[in-house]
Amino acid sequence: MTRRLSDDRPGVPSTSTGSWRRIAGSIALLLGLSLSSTAVLAYNDLLPVSVRRAVDGISAETPQLPHVAHSLATGGPIRIVAFGSSSTEGIGASRASAAYPARLSVALKQAQPRSADRITVSNRGVGGEAVDDMLVRIDRDVIAPRPDLVVWQTGSNDPLRGVSLDHFRAATAGAVRRIREAGIDVVLMEPQWCPKLDATPGAYRFRDAVREIGAELDVPVIRRSDMMRDWIARGEVTHEELFAADGLHMADRGYDLLGQEVSALILRAAGPAHVARVASTHE
Asked: In Å, how far are 74, 97, 106, 280, 283 from 150, measured between CA atoms?
């Protein structure tokens, strides 16, 4: 005969041991999920303000960069292509090692020391290019090398060259889909904030278009324009340190800060376990 546990109060039905165990198990599962969610949210609180700004709005529970997450988890190579125009090439930097892709490589290796020898960042930036110029290079510079991730900086030259906003939007969204269909993760980088774009009517509509494409396709977007304004507002950098003399490109200090921000976003979008490692490097 099965022994039953009963409540001493009248009118309360008895419950089998198996039922109690199932109830207890359900409660434990709910508590575990609650604690897990709390822990994931806590990662963001551990990060410094500049890093949190780069990763706001990205879900930690489902990686938006699954190929990067897989490489980090399995110990495989992490191959990144920095694709774009002059901001990627590094115009305005004093030397190639001061361009943002080089600074991104340094920041990633510092944040992931166990993976440092497996991380490569290839600079595929060509100054002056608008979206159609970049589309010509996508097969050769992005899809053929089969990286885990492409960071695509775009939208700066298009308003300066009179490219239609609708064409830019359609061409960029189509290219993002092609890259992802090839099994490559994508991060978009919006145009910079700078005096020359400030003086170009409609320039920041291209910035907004990049953000809209990111939201539509669930692609992380590096909000470079906001970041640059924040750096100035908080005194992290002066105008002279942030901008090159031409009023369009960034200078060494700006590129270094950008590399750190992009590194933080990549690791956050790859999953919460990697955010914990980023936090530990800033303690």
From this structure: 20, 19, 17, 26, 29
